[in-house]
Amino acid sequence: MARNNNRILNPSARAALDRLKMETANEVGVQLNEGYNGDIKSKDAGYIGGNMVKKMIQSYENKAAGGH
Length: 68
Description:
By secondary structure, the chain is an all-alpha fold. Helices cover 56% and strands 0% of the residues.
């Protein structure tokens, strides 16, 4: 069994990341359930994760540039 090394450094961010995941899945047309989603395709999981990273980078760039 694989170990999950993806630890959240700030535990209070868990809810915000879960909201971002559900929002992103909705936008890309992937149906997620609350909790376990091990039955989705790897392609779909990667698509969700990639788009989450893209959003986080855009948010950081906006803040770094003085925007909101």
